[in-house]
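Hey L., structure's done. Input below.
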Amino acid sequence: MKANKTMNFIKLISKKRVFLLQVFANLITQLGITYGVSKSGLKNNNMWTLFAFQICIILILAFVRMPPIIKFVLFCAFSISFGIQLSVFNKTSYEDLVNFAIIGTICIFIAMAAVGTLLSFFEINLGDTFASALLYLLMILIIVQLVVIYTKKYDAHIRAISGAGLFLFSLFIIYDTNHILQRNYDGDFITASMDYYLDIINTFYNVLNLNNEI
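Output:
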């Protein structure tokens, strides 16, 4: 039985090796763009405009069929917008905090991706029910964030909210890894890498907020 699972897993990885290489190559490229822009000094004081721009791109990528090159360009624009948001931390006083958050995010991503891969090895498929539960929890988290921001109590609850967010996006990494290995994306590595990108960016923000004393 164990030998069969091992052989099936090897066949799965062999079948998906090119796709996985494309996913991680694009993911590294987009994260590199975000990091480079964050260090470039570009700034935008209207964060709500950037947020609206990002939501629009997510909706377009999710519901509009287009050639891969157009998807890639839109993904690059999305990555640039996050880089502009992160440029606020491009200060000497934030350097240690940002470096710690980067290392923490990488460690969490590797650990959770390993869990998602292990589930695939044991042929466990985290299906629609699990995905629906994650989306439901994400909606609750967003509502809570909006409420505490509106009531001007965000600073008092930032650690609790960030801790919950970190836990939730860790689960998203597990799910997305399992989903990427199990689902047939028909070669659409842009969508798969976007899922990972959002997980990583949100994990980074939550690690940052958990350790931000300011």
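Residues 2-210 form one domain. The radius of gyration is 18 Å.

-- N.
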